[in-house]
Design brief:
alpha+beta, Folate-binding fold, two-stranded antiparallel sheet, binds zinc ion
Length: about 110
């Protein structure tokens, strides 16, 4: 049995709006100017940690359906990195904040 033919990217994305992201330095820009660098706030374990801990640090990430803290870079703009708290299910952006800031607490609206 043959697999179904895929639509061309142009056809399959024709009815979808591009996500607009807000760079803290440049303002709102289309998503194709940005690059997602993965999960934010991952702490590197001590160098004398177990192999299991080191592998967990390198390879295992949460994959939440909901709010997720991510690192983003405005690659085709100012080139700056920043954090974004984005809902992975709805793409709602809850917060954009500096790399040095703690993840905002959605319940209180403030950093912990
Ligand atoms: Zn920028």
């Amino acid at each position: 049995m043959k697999p179904p033919l895929l639509e061309s990217p142009t056809e399959s994305n024709a009815d979808q709006a591009m996500m607009i992201l807000r760079c803290p330095w440049c303002g709102e820009r289309p998503e194709n100017e940005f690059h997602c660098g993965g999960t934010s706030h991952i702490q590197r374990p001590a160098l004398d940690c177990s192999d299991e801990t080191w592998c967990d640090y390198l390879f295992n990430r949460d994959n939440p359906c909901g709010p997720h803290a991510e690192r983003w870079r405005h690659t085709f703009g100012c080139g700056q990195w920043f954090n974004m708290l984005r809902d992975t299910a709805t793409h709602e952006i809850h917060a954009v904040y500096a790399m040095t800031e703690a993840r905002p607490d959605l319940a209180t609206g403030n950093p912990p």
